[in-house]
From TrEMBL:
Main localization, broad class: membrane
Gene Ontology cellular-component annotations: plasma membrane
Localization per record: Cell membrane
Domain ABC transporter span(s) in chain numbering: 6-229
InterPro entries given in the database record: AAA+_ATPase, ABC_transporter-like_ATP-bd, ATPase_AAA_core, P-loop_NTPase, Rad50/SbcC_AAA, Siderophore_ABC-ATPase
Organism superkingdom: Bacteria
SMART domains linked to this entry: AAA (SM00382)
Protein name per its UniProtKB record: AAA family ATPase
Keyword list, A-Z: ATP-binding, Cell membrane, Ion transport, Iron, Iron transport, Membrane, Nucleotide-binding, Transport
Pfam families found in the cross-reference section: AAA_21, AAA_23
């Protein structure tokens, strides 16, 4: 027993159509239950391996808007979320989060637009559209991240420089140390380095736990940096 807000999930496959594409995603199709044991959980894997599909379903089942934001955001510019959202059952802990945010790179523009619309004199807009992509992304993460919150992030590194990824890493560790929970899809070898995190890999079929050094993000980055000339020669030949 731990004190996480989201302790695990299960999928009711009877609620998913027989011809649904979800049944063809190798890492998802055999999931019955999944337990979270650490305050920081990562989903890693190749493009198209199903990370965002599972993360989005988890976020929506927990009460977040499919396109992101706080739990108070309620809008939809397009209805693209999968039937997995209705089939997921979340095991909740006994604590209630004091804050929360579902951050996703792909619909961040729409969330920033809504933030402006929702603003009033008591809650002035942060004018995210007037900041650079990376500046606004980090600003929004920092505005909502605090102790005892629940945070579901889909590729938060997408707009961030390596230095700002380190800033985000520090903020995540600080909040996690004080009771926050993070579930994060990432390709970033920097963020994945967060100590004592649990990493679920969506590669090689069934979803499984792996070590930092076993992730492609680490292996490919390490290989490239330490063997750049050799690797480029192999990849590009005499071109
Ligand atoms: N509406 C849909 N209809 C059919 N297939 C879909 C649909 N949405 C997603 N898929 C497929 O489901 C698979 C998983 O997609 P998902 O976005 O979860 O991948 P991902 O691991 O998050 O990838 P990335 O790292 O590129 O973000 C992909 O093969 C994708 O083409």
């Amino acid at each position: 027993m731990n004190n996480l807000f989201i302790q695990g999930l299960s999928i009711e496959w009877t609620k998913i159509r027989q011809d649904s594409y979800l049944r063809n995603i190798d890492a998802i199709k055999d999931i019955n239950g999944l337990d979270f044991k650490k305050s920081v959980t990562f989903f890693v894997g190749e493009n198209g391996s199903g990370k965002s599909t599972l993360l989005e379903a988890l976020a929506v089942a927990y009460g977040f808007n499919p396109e992101g934001g706080t739990k108070n955001y309620s809008f939809s510019t397009y209805d693209s979320h999968s039937e997995l959202c209705d089939a997921i059952r979340i095991t909740k802990g006994f604590r209630r989060p004091k804050s929360g945010y579902f951050l996703r790179a792909e619909s961040f523009y729409n969330v920033a637009t809504k933030e402006k619309e929702y603003a009033d004199s008591e809650h002035p807009s942060e004018k995210y559209h007037e900041k650079s992509h990376g500046e606004s992304f980090l600003a929004i993460a920092q505005k909502y991240m605090r102790a005892e919150g629940i945070y579901i992030f889909d590729e938060p590194e997408a707009a961030l420089s390596p230095q700002r990824q380190l800033t985000l890493l520090m903020d995540i560790c600080k909040c996690a140390k004080h009771g926050a929970q993070f579930i994060i899809v990432t390709h970033s070898p920097i963020l994945l380095g967060i100590p004592d995190a649990e990493i679920f890999s969506f590669d090689e079929g069934e979803l499984h736990l792996c070590e930092y050094e076993e992730t492609d993000s680490y292996i490919v980055t390490e290989l490239f940096i330490n063997n750049r000339n050799h690797l480029l020669h192999k990849l590009l030949g005499e071109v």
